């Protein structure tokens, strides 16, 4: 991203994804599926974090760029293709049903120099969102984007960016995992413990994506939380999840947590074993990313300045080593 900006150009979703994946490989595994014209722009990818014991979390991901239009920072969540009255955002949330996973965005946000004029009007405990470490490649639930668009479409990009988490840090055991306090009382014991106690690996990824969604839900005057049980998903880690919608378009807990599984789906096993997944998977995706050993402990080499091992250190936002000192002018 920095390279393109320095050369007077602008980074794009497809290229940024290819650079990210090729740089993070072989720590992560990925497979690209044959792109047709429709897929070239806005093809969704499936990402799966897989722990050593097979617990895993799946996410349907669409790549987006944080852009400066005039003086306004924005993310194009409500793009419509000609002749289709549905927005990309609503299509992404619906498309996640095919795989029974959560929908999210991966945001390419450039470096801190690129974001220098981004001002967010929300509270910050520590550093403003534009200056966070490693936030150049970050992720946020599609339900956060849906809410941001419905509350204030013009400001939805900055608002979603505020709630985005660095992809590199998302499962970091070194970061604080504050308890999530659910609105509803009397949740199933395993789900209640998941929310309140620190988590690792794929469970942690699910929890970090859920965190801003639950905060939004806790701020909604949508009546008492419904405790009716959502339809169960095969191999889901949590079988008893409340069917509460709040003001979201889908039951948010069920949507966020259905991709958290006790068993790796066959098509993910295919990717890990070098086989081509079946057509019902490959026909609908740009590709699949698998992050194995998602719960592996942080090693000294990976820890760096607090960064953690989902991706190698020195990726987005980290200072790059200078060129060959012998070449210094
Ligand atoms: Zn902010």
Please mark out the parts with pLDDT under 50 across 5 or more consecutive residues, or reply none. Answer: 300-329
Helical fraction equals 25-40%
Number of helices in the DSSP assignment:
12
Broad shape: globular
Question: What composes the largest sheet?
Answer: 8 strands, mixed
Structural class: alpha+beta
Strand content: 5-15%
Work out the radius of gyration.
19 Å
Which hetero compounds are present in the coordinates?
zinc ion
Tally of distinct domains: 1
C-alpha termini separation:
25 Å
Mean pLDDT: 88
Brief overview:
It comes from Streptomyces virginiae (Streptomyces cinnamonensis). Residues 297-329 are annotated as: Disordered. With 329 residues, this protein is an alpha+beta fold.
Would you kindly provide a written description of the structure presented here, covering whatever features stand out?
- With 329 residues, the protein is of the alpha+beta class.
- The protein has one domain.
- The chain is 30% helix and 14% strand.
- The strands form two sheets. Strands 1, 2, 3, 6, 7, 8, 9 and 10 form an eight-stranded mixed β-sheet that branches. Strands 4-5 form a two-stranded antiparallel sheet.
- The longest helix has 18 residues.
- The structure holds zinc ion.
- Zinc ion binds next to loops.
Could you give the topology of this structure?
Blueprint (H helix, E strand, L loop, with lengths): L1 H5 L6 H12 L4 E4 L4 H4 L4 E6 L5 E10 L1 E3 L2 E3 L13 H12 L2 E7 L28 E5 H11 L3 H8 L1 E2 L22 H8 L4 H18 L33 H6 L2 E2 L4 H8 L5 H4 L4 E5 L8 H4 L26
Helix pairs in contact: 4-5, 5-6
The chain binds zinc ion.
Protein name: CD-NTase associated protein 4-like DNA endonuclease domain-containing protein
Organism: Streptomyces virginiae (Streptomyces cinnamonensis)
């Amino acid at each position: 991203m920095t390279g393109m900006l320095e050369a007077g150009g602008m980074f794009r979703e497809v290229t940024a994804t290819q650079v990210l994946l090729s740089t993070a490989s072989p720590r992560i595994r990925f497979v690209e599926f044959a792109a047709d014209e429709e897929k070239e722009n806005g093809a969704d990818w499936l990402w799966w974090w897989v722990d050593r014991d097979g617990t895993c979390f799946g996410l349907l991901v669409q790549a987006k760029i944080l852009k400066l239009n005039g003086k306004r920072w924005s993310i194009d969540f409500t793009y419509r293709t000609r002749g289709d009255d549905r927005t990309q955002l609503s299509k992404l949330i619906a498309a996640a049903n095919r795989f029974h996973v959560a929908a999210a965005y991966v945001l390419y946000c450039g470096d801190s120099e690129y974001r220098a004029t981004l001002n967010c009007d929300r509270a910050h405990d520590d550093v403003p969102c534009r200056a966070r470490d490693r936030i150049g490649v970050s992720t946020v639930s599609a339900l956060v984007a849906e809410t941001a668009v419905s509350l204030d479409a013009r400001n939805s990009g900055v608002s979603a960016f505020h709630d985005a988490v660095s992809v590199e840090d998302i499962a970091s055991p070194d970061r604080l995992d504050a308890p999530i306090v659910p609105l509803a009382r009397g949740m199933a014991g395993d789900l209640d413990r998941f929310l309140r106690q620190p988590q690792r690996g794929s469970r942690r990824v699910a929890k970090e994506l859920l965190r801003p969604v639950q905060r939004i839900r806790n701020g909604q005057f949508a009546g008492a939380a419904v405790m009716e049980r959502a339809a169960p998903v095969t191999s889901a880690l949590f079988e008893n999840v409340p069917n509460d919608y709040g003001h979201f378009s889908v039951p948010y807990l069920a949507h966020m947590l259905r991709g958290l599984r006790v068993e790796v789906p066959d098509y993910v096993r295919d990717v890990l074993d070098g086989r081509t997944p079946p057509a019902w998977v490959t026909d609908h995706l740009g590709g699949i990313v698998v992050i194995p050993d998602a719960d592996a402990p942080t090693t000294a080499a990976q820890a760096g300045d607090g960064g953690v091992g989902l991706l190698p250190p020195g990726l987005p936002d980290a200072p790059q080593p200078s060129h060959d000192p012998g070449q210094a002018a």
